[in-house]
Description:
Elements: H1 3-25, H2 32-57, H3 66-89, H4 93-119
Helix pairs in contact: 1-2, 1-4, 2-3, 2-4, 3-4
Amino acid sequence: xxxxxxxxxxxxxxxxxxxxxxxxxxxxxxxxxxxxxxxxxxxxxxxxxxxxxxxxxxxxxxxxxxxxxxxxxxxxxxxxxxxxxxxxxxxxxxxxxxxxxxxxxxxxxxxxxxxxxxxxxx
Length: 122
């Protein structure tokens, strides 16, 4: 895992989550802005999957459980994809609020993945 990439992903997930929550509570329906913000989070998580495959092979293994890390990563990757699919079906303001909650949940999961990779002893 790359520390600066984790910081960028955390900032993006927090910003996207807050943007979607504000837009949802203001009554906005899913639009390009909120869907694009969550899609950016999903794209960064796909990049994280590639980094998580290459990093141990390059001599940068996690300090914690690799299985636990991968479970968080796969779960975090599925959340925005499922949320965007649901927001395309349910075009209400509440789907935007759910996208905001997903963005914040992904931020928490990314923080935990950083703890597993950098801090937690095996």
